[in-house]
Structures are given as C-alpha cells and as structure tokens.
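Hello Y.,

Per our agreement to keep a running log of every chain we model this quarter, I'm adding this entry. I've kept the format consistent with earlier entries: sequence first, then predicted structure.
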Amino acid sequence: MKKGELKLFIFEFIIIFLLILNSFISSILNYQNILLLLIGMMIITKYLFGFEKKNNRYNKEIIINLLIVILTCFIIYYLSGLIIGFVKTDTLTSIYGLTNFIIPFTVSLVLKEILRYNLLRKGEKSKFLLVLTIILFIMLDVTFTLANGFTGSKYSKFLFFSLTFLPSISRNVTATYIAKKISFIPNILWLLIVNLYSSIIPIMPSTGNYVGSLLKLLFPVIIFYSVFTFVQNRKMNKPLRNNNEHRLLGISLTGIFVAVVVYFSSGFFKYYAIAVATGSMVPNISIGDVVIVNQKYDLNDIKVGDIIAVKYDNKIIVHRIVKMVNNNDELYIYTKGDANKSLDNYVVNKDMIIGVVNIKIPYIGLPTVWLNDL
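Predicted structure for the entry above:
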C-alpha cells in the first residue's frame, strides 16, 4: 500500500471506529453534530489530501438519463396508489421543518457526496479502499438514523434493518459507482429526490413497511443499471440517444397528468374523484363514470335532490338525498339510488358524508373498476 493510500486508510478507519463507538456504546452524535462531523471531515480531507477537480464528463447526459428513470419510476409508483390506496405523509415544508430537517439534510448530503467523490479519487486504484469507503458511508447513514430516534424494540430493530441498513448498502454501492465513474453531481440529484420526496409530497401509495423496504432496496439497483449501461455504451463508443430531451419532456408531461389523477383520487384534498362501480344511479351515473366530490362542503347548503358520497360499512356509496330530518339539532339524511325502487337501509348522519358530487366524467373510471374487480 502506497503512502497516500495508507494515510487514507488510517483516516477512514478512525472515522468508522468512532461512528461504531458512537452507535453502539455511547451515542453523542445528534443531528446537528453529524453535520459538524461532516464539515470537520471535509476540512481534514482538504488538509491531508487536497480536493480533486470536478469531472464534468457526461454530467448532462447522465442527469437527463437519471431524471427520465426517476420520473418513470415515480409515475408507476403513484399509479399503483390508485389500486392499493394512499396514505398521508408528515410533510416538513413548514419553516420549522425546513430549518430543522430539509436544509440541514440537504447540506449534509451535498457534503457527503463531495467527500465521497474526493475519497474515491484519492484511493481509486485500491479495491480495499473502495470497500472501506462504502462501509464509511453506510455507517454515516446508520449514525444519522440512530440520532433521529431509535427505541431499541424488536419492531424498531426490524424497521432499522429493513428500511435503513439494507437500503443503505444498495444506495451507497450505487452512489460510489456513480461518483467513481462520473462525478458527485448526479448523486446529489437522485439522492435528494429519493430521500426528500416523502417530506414534501403530502401523499404516497400505501405500500406498507415490507414493500416499502423492497422498493428502497430495488430503486438504487435501477439507478445503478441505468448508469452502468450508459458507461458501458460509452466504452464501446456507442452513440448516445439524441432525443433524451424530448423523452424527458414527454415523461414530464405524463407525470403532470398522473399527478392530477392522483390529486383527485387520493382523497386528501378538497376535491376527490370516485370511480362508480355499480349501476344504482343509472341513468344519471353509469358504471365506470367518475364523479368529482367536494369534500369541503357546507352542511347547511346540502338539500334534497343533491347527490352525496357516503361511507357506510367500509364502502363508498354515491346516492341522491330524498329526505332530510332535523331532530334535536341532529341531521338525519335518507338516500336512494336513482335506479333503486326503495330507500337505502341506513340513515346517513354528518359523520358519514364524504362530500357533495359536483361533476360527472363519463367512463374514464372503467379501468379502475376492472382492476378493483380483479
């Protein structure tokens, strides 16, 4: 091992040892201290090894390529929510969330990727140092997770292993490959998107922890394959596709369309889209029609003749109001499907009402109805 590589090994080994000591013996690194640690590591790296010049080769092509891959994956991911449902996320877009999480996390991620790039450039000829660098950044992820609340219970350990440790291996192997072959800029792009989207977008598909863990494990593999294919093509002097910008535009427009569909289908906003699965409202509303429901209705404005969406027996039912009774300040609503001969066998109260139907869009909900039937 050369002198420079030995110095790099000692530096990385000491940091890994301190992180292990912190994680399993005496946890002294909190969220802010990790940021200070990264700044200190940057200063020491600059002093001991100097900084490498940024490699701009293929940055633009790789970034466009990654954006296409990420947008495609997100479109498929959120379309799945139309079938499996959505859950509300704890967004951090408030001033508190920005200053205490999003901004510090962004700064720390940028520092980590610049640091990763420089460490790899200094030890790029040694496979041992390559593996050691991957371990270093996995330990940084572990330390970050432990600093943000780890109870030590069996369930918490499971979540840590499946949602943090395994995805961290996949993520850091991919980020190391990209930093080694391209630069740190593509890493900053895809890692920021993957780590922060759930803190910015208020809904996400209800995948659960098991599927969520698998997705976190597989997504970096998809990114790795995309970059690996690009690098191999460049080695063989295969021509790059010259229509990447058009592909990106097309996928972006598709993404906007999907975002609108998800917006109306998630149920977390003012308007909620419901695909009608029965013929109880024929001829006014047919099977496969989509009704747009206003969830921010005023109860005092509801009247006989209005069509409302009601949740009863874990089902959403869209029927017309035929009678309203006010008894001791309690409102009781009787509903009926236009195609039905008799009233519904339940009485609706205000807690059961999802909203008032405002608009009907014919037939566009048929695919959703078919998928739910399957």
